[in-house]
Amino acid sequence: MTLTAIRRLHERIEMATPATIRAGGHTLAATTRDISLGGIFIVTDVALREGTEIQVVLVLPRELGLTISGMVCCYGKVVRSETIDGQYGIAAMVERFQAVQQA
């Protein structure tokens, strides 16, 4: 992997877009704050514990320059949770992205 590819993997792109989190059999509304190929930061009304496996469904515009766009599901694990103005900020490591087939 080249140095440019490694930087791109960790480059965070600010993006505030609606998202849906699926965790532990529950579905939560959320808003993204930033995203990269290796991680995502989302804000929601419910705290999630570190290590919790999550699925985040959102729409990624092609203009972001990521390897995937359109409606996607990010599969990952919570690495940090913090309180932000009465809500919870959730940092998650993204293990993989998958396109979501729309009906």
Structure write-up:
With 103 residues, the protein is mainly beta. Helix content is 8%, strand content 58%. The chain has one helix and seven strands. The protein has one helix spanning 3-10; strands at residues 13-14, 18-23, 26-35, 39-44, 53-60, 70-84, 87-99. Strands 2-3-4-7-6-5 form a six-stranded antiparallel barrel. The termini are far apart. 18% of the residues are buried. Mean pLDDT is 85; it is low at 1-6.
Offer a quick outline of the entry:
This protein is mainly beta and 103 residues long.
Structural class: mainly beta
Q: N-to-C SSE series?
A: HEEEEEEE
Main pleated sheet: 6 strands, antiparallel, barrel
- Between the first and last Cα atoms, what is the distance in angstroms? 37 Å
Give unreliable regions as ranges.
1-6
- Total strands: the figure is 7
Question: Which of globular, elongated, flat, extended, rod-shaped describes the shape?
Answer: globular
Mean pLDDT: 85
Instruction: Please tell me how large the radius of gyration is.
Output: 13 Å
Widest beta sheet: strand line-up: 2-3-4-7-6-5
